[in-house]
Amino acid sequence: MQKLKHYAYMCQILAWNQVKVRYKNSILGVLWGFLNPLGIMYIFIFVFSSVFVEIENYPLYLLSGLIFWYFFSNASNEVVFSFIKGQSIIKSLAIPRSVLPLSGILSSVIHLLFTLIPFFIVMNFYGLVWSWHILLLIPALVLFTIFILGLCLALASINVYFRDISMLWSTLLMFIFYSSPIVYGRTIIPDRFNFIVKFNPISYYMELFRSALYYNRIASLDVWGAAAAFSFLFLLFGFVVYRVLRKGFVSNLG
Fold first, then answer.
1. CB of 222 within 8 A of CB of 208?
2. What is the residue range of 129's domain?
3. What is the pLDDT of residues 81-114, one digit of tens each?
4. Number of domains making up the chain
5. Which of 23, 33, 247, 249 could form a disulfide with 115 if both were Cys (CB 3.0 to 4.6 A apart)?
6. Are 149 and 141 spatial neighbours (Cβ–Cβ below 8 Å)?
7. Distance CA 136, CA 208 (A)
8. C-alpha distances in angstroms, 21 versus 26, 101, 180, 249?
9. What is the pLDDT of residues 132-163, one digit of tens each?
10. What pTM did the predictor assign?
11. Contact, 62 vs 44, CB < 8 A?
């Protein structure tokens, strides 16, 4: 129990340190996490609002997806480099190395919670309905965070041995973005490409978030079940990859 408390304390300290570094010497600070996706949203509205006319209140639909996509993108880019950036800690301190990716995820969650405030203000302007369904964001965000942690724990571990992983991941992010129903609805996807969305974990998490923010309903049990399955399968996968590769971290970080 004492070790668990010590582990949690280290995660907290490292996470807050990363948050402070992110906003250090920045005039707008946390607002950048809001302004970037907001700017992208208006670009997509300008380009696609006349294309996706079947989507009612397209700005709200788009924004309810972009918030959490940016969380995924920023968190994954942060965690993939966590072992490399923290190599001095790994070499000098006897701490569990998994603290580094976990603190990276935690700092991204803190950043998301800060930026949700201005997001909700803008979404309210576009017709956000304040109902109890918004509370479903909490379990949905927990599942999404678990998924990101598992995925990026594996990527960060492999990246210690093959630095190309981080470069490849930046490219894959664009593919994942456009193969996920973030700027478009699932109904426009041709039947022959439905398998891409079906086996794309991001699509299930987006459905959970949009059900709470856009549709004001509870997502189906199938969607919740798929999201939970992806979360814990990827967490198991990431933990196994980390356990197998961690012994060579020090020699490969030199």
1. no
2. 2-252
3. 888 887 777 766 667 778 888 888 988 888 888 7
4. 1
5. 33
6. no
7. 8
8. 10, 16, 31, 25
9. 999 999 999 999 999 999 999 999 999 989 88
10. 0.89
11. yes
